[in-house]
Amino acid sequence: MSSRKVAVLVVDDDVRMLRMIVRTLELENYRVLTATNGDIALNTFDKQSPDLLLLDIMMPGMDGYTLCQRIREFSQVPIIMVTAKGSDEEKVKGLDMGADDYIAKPFSAQELVSRVKAVLRRTKLQDEQPAPRFCSGNLIVDFAQHRVILRNHEVNLTATEYRLLSYLARNAGRVLTPDQLLERVWGDDYAGEFHLIQVNMARLRKKLRDSAKNPKYILTKSSIGYMMVAKT
After folding, report:
1. How much is the pTM?
2. Which domains are assigned to the chain?
């Protein structure tokens, strides 16, 4: 019996773009779900529980940013934002809303498939992590259950935020360079995209109530990199 196909929900009001993406992903053996606006997307998400969202930003009514934010209220499913111009402002705003990655129009079928596979691969690696815990003061990272506890309350992290924190925690006491973080958390295709670290680190620190100027958990070591503090 064949294994279950990975389900990708594609949300885009451009019918031609939607058709191209569907054909590309179906040729890679993904099960593709579609929606042309935010309301349909939320309904489809609730009924089908997709493994990944490919989400266009510019849509009438509920735009991609708002839809991403809505989904992040109840799910940490990986989200790739599709930007029209690929400007840094659009990329950063999408990441701020909780997206895991982005792809800029126009893009090739090969680039689309590469981005989808990279995000799914990172999610799979996260699921295969071994089982010990990391503790630092009031912070607990439970690798077995993919949970982060701060002062006895669970912290709601996106998949990317969790991978970043998990990698820092597993290397507590070591300074990790931005290049190392990009390679291990995002992958080889993301060399030089340091804004991914900056945005996710800022979001992570906010959720951990950790100030960059007076940090308890994550230290910034000048321009060298970042280090997780291990303390009892």
Report:
1. 0.67
2. 7-126 (3.40.50.2300), 133-228 (1.10.10.10)
